[in-house]
């Protein structure tokens, strides 16, 4: 009997096509910044909508695999995952395709054509705007960290230049960690030099603020969420990737300090009120919304979320709450606000939990992470100066990073779990 008329062979071919279509959805979702649960649901919706009766998935950092069954026939396939990034417009376009496949309105051919179309034609913000948004976000971070006004424009210019270099190197396929070190060096060195020329008294803060667009806030929060939702393997891999990025950020910043022949310690940063923090939190969140490729309307909501986050956290700090508790409350407030927005606007095309993540990004203690790794590097010197004090700084900074990110992730996850809504809305 020919292979064309053998029903078993045809059935296996059909299952293979189903599996590969669902894996394509999972691959794109992974590469655009989705949580593990979203990737799992997306693949299962696609596979079930195309006719598979049982679906089992395994989601790793570098690959996704799927086992699909129909009757007595079972097939397993795997697909590699490329570099991870954040692209919310493409991410939500793929979610919509998965939902339509599950509803039975798309064939395999239609789905693959739709995926290819979205990969080619999903709108992105212009590169000039992308670079400028990174500069605005980092300059706003500088104000949140206590940098003076003299450092604002130097940080904006340096971070914008660094982001332009980053886009150029990524387009050429340079290793992401090498890109991180180069961009950290360029941005930090420019920020330090320009801040010195501008007469800023907060040069060290300016140098740290200029590289904060490199801090992987979304992967860090996704890692914790994955672990809390029962996917510890992928969550741990994401944490390792986050740690590697921070190491290379520190390498770049450390080299820039050497190039500037050391930078004097900054004076105590000036504290600011709620309105100031909320304003620059909003600017930082909206800037990161551009980097995450939010739709134009979603950028406004991202800014509002950032304003809520920094406003609530500042209020908590002013009444004497520790940073971790204030960050938890702020993250919970942002998650609740996003859910209320969705309920009030009904069909509004929101960015989902990614909107809450963007609002929380300005609270990520990037400078503390850099300070922690820099202190550990100082301890590795042949004759470290003041080793006990340096170790205490490293330990304190690392705990602040872990507890603050943990508190933020818990605040987001608890609210989003209690007020659970579909990640694939109609």
Automatic annotation (TrEMBL):
Keywords: Cell membrane, Membrane, Transmembrane, Transmembrane helix. The keyword Nuclease does not apply. InterPro entries: ThrE-like_N (IPR010619), ThrE_2 (IPR024528), ThrE_Dicarb/AminoAcid_Exp (IPR050539). Residues 277-416 form the Threonine/Serine exporter ThrE domain. Residues 22-255 form the Threonine/serine exporter-like N-terminal domain. The chain crosses the membrane at residues 128-145, 151-169, 176-197, 203-223, 235-254, 274-292, 299-319, 325-343, 355-379, 399-419. Coiled coil: none annotated. It is a multi-pass membrane protein. The keyword Transmembrane helix applies. It is found in: Cell membrane. Belongs to the ThrE exporter (TC 2.A.79) family. This is Uncharacterized membrane protein YjjP (DUF1212 family). The lineage of its organism: Bacteria, Pseudomonadati, Pseudomonadota, Alphaproteobacteria, Hyphomicrobiales.
């Amino acid at each position: 009997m020919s292979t064309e008329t053998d029903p078993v062979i045809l059935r296996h071919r059909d299952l293979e096509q189903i599996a590969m279509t669902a894996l394509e959805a999972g691959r794109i979702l992974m590469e655009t910044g989705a949580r593990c649960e979203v990737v799992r649901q997306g693949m299962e919706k696609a596979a079930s909508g195309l006719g598979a009766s049982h679906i089992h998935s395994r989601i790793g950092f570098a690959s996704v695999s799927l086992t699909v069954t129909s009757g007595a026939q079972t097939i397993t396939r795997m697909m590699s995952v490329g570099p991870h990034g954040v692209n919310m417009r493409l991410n939500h376009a793929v979610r919509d395709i998965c939902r339509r496949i599950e509803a039975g309105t798309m064939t395999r051919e239609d789905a693959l054509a739709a995926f290819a179309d979205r990969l080619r034609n999903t709108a992105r913000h212009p590169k000039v705007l992308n670079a400028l948004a990174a500069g605005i976000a980092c300059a706003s971070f500088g104000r949140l960290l206590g940098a003076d006004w003299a450092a604002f424009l130097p940080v904006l210019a340096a971070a914008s230049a660094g982001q332009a270099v980053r886009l150029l190197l990524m387009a050429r396929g340079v290793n992401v960690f090498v890109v991180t070190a180069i961009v950290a060096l360029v941005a930090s060195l420019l920020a330090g030099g320009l801040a010195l020329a501008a007469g800023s008294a907060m040069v060290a803060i300016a140098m740290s603020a200029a590289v904060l667009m490199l801090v992987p806030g979304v992967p860090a929060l996704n890692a914790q969420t994955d672990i809390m939702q029962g996917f510890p393997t992928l969550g741990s891999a994401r944490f390792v990737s986050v740690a590697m990025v921070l190491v290379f950020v520190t390498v770049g910043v450390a080299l820039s300090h050497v190039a500037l022949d050391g930078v004097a310690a900054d004076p105590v940063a000036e504290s600011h009120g709620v309105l100031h923090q909320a304003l620059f939190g909003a600017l930082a969140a909206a800037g990161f919304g551009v980097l995450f490729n939010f739709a134009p309307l979603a950028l406004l909501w991202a800014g509002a979320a950032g304003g809520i986050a920094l406003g609530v956290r500042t209020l908590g700090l002013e009444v004497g709450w520790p940073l971790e508790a204030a960050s938890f409350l702020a993250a919970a407030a942002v998650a609740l606000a996003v859910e209320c927005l969705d309920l009030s606007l009904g069909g509004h095309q929101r960015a989902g939990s990614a909107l809450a993540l963007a609002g929380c990004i300005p609270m990520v203690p990037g400078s503390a992470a850099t300070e922690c790794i820099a202190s550990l590097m100082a301890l590795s010197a042949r004759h470290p100066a003041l080793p006990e004090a340096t170790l205490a700084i490293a330990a304190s900074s690392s705990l602040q990073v872990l507890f603050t990110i943990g508190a933020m992730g818990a605040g987001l996850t608890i609210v989003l779990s209690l007020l659970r809504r579909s990640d694939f809305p109609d």
